[in-house]
Structures are given as structure tokens and as C-alpha cells.
Amino acid sequence: MFSTGVGAQSILMGKITSGMSEDEPVGNIMLETSSGSTSFSNESGLFKIQYQPKDTLFFYYQGKRTLSFLMDTINPQNFYVPLYQIRHRVMEGAKSRFNSALLPVDTSYNNVTVKNRNYSQDSLDRRKEYGKAFGYTKPKMKFGEDWTPTSLNVGKLYETLNGSKKKKNQMLKDNLIREEEEGYITNRFNPTFVSKYLGEKVSEHTLEDYMKVKRPTFEFLQGIQDLELIDYIRKSFAAYKKEKGLQ
Fold this sequence. Notes:
The chain is of the alpha+beta class. It has helices at residues 83-91, 98-102, 119-129, 131-134, 154-188, 191-196, 204-213, 218-222, 226-244, and strands spanning 3-6, 9-17, 30-33, 38-40, 46-51, 56-61, 64-70, 80-82, 106-109, 112-115.
């Protein structure tokens, strides 16, 4: 395997080997450099990817980052990566998610600055602020010492007042959960992540319109990992261009 130089960038060509795990597929394993280039291995494990001299090369398996190499430590004439090393890191419990591991805190694109929010912290803060709605319990009714029974149906009054308050709390809780779900979608399906994997440069207007038209649902995103989300972005953008006559 070898590396070829093209201006300031070079192309690394390598192979993921199956070794003793010949029954395990070596294709469709994702690679990415710290400067933003991405690639996937083919069915034979071969891959090539553009890189810059100070880059770090990352490998992903089952949607998780598992292995990394500094480019200046790689032998460009003989770069092979055993599959078991990539799998071993996953089994050790590598927890870094693709979107949270690679997206910077403050990213600029097309003259627009995107600041990534901490979705988990926002959710915790929101639940703490509206704790009464999330942890609603029926209030106890208190009467003064001089209270005496009358013909008033106290039980009915209690149910009416308590039912109204409970309904308002449930509505607030539903709205907060809806906001959390929308925040989760926005956190994963964000402009920086999407524009990076469309496969081509697009205008700000096109990006915004595509993300509005093809915004995935909360249920869909919960069931997929980031590699599957990248695949969704590429396929849905191709469909979007066809629908808009942009091809």
C-alpha cells in the first residue's frame, strides 16, 4: 500500500485484513481524518483517503470510533490494519459517538456560525426547572380548624380543582417532552454534520431547505447509529435533488 502526494494533500491507500476472522466482512468500515476527509473500505478491505501531514486517521466500527493513528507515524508503503484490532476496541466498550466526538464546539460554514448545544445538559436543566410537571403528585387538601361540613360537595370540588391542575401539568409535561425530542433531532441532524456528508457543496438556502424537507423523526433517529444517519443523509439528499429538479 502506498501514499501519493497531491499538493498539500496526499492520498493514503491501505487495507483492512481479516486475519483469523475470515468470516467477518472487512468492507464498509468507515475512516476519517481530522481534517475532514472520509472513506469506506470495499469488500476486499481496500481503501484510500486524502489526508494532510498533521492529520490523525480514525477508524469506525458499528458506528463507534475505535482506532486512531497519527499520519506521520504510518508507513505509507505497507499500511495494513487487522480487523480484530478494530473489533477489540469496540468490545472494550468504546463509547465515543461519531457526532459528539468529531463536531467542534463552534463551527463556521457558509458565513453562518453554528454553536452546538449540550443536549443532555439542556434536558437535565429543563427537567430540574420544571420538576413539578415531571414529578406531579396529587396535592393534599387542607382545611382550617373551624371548618365544618356543609351541603357543598367537597369531593366534587376537589376532583374539579385537582383535575384541572393535573391536566395543565400533563400538558406542560407533554410540551416539554416534545421539546426534548425536537432538541435530540436538532442535536444529531445539525447543519455541520449534514453539510459534511451531503457529498457536495451546496448553498446555505439549499442546505436549510433540504434539512427542513427531509428532517427525520425522533423515533427514526433513536433506532440508528451515526453511520446509518450518514447513509440516510446521502440517500435522502439524492431524493431531494430529484424532487427539486436539481440533478
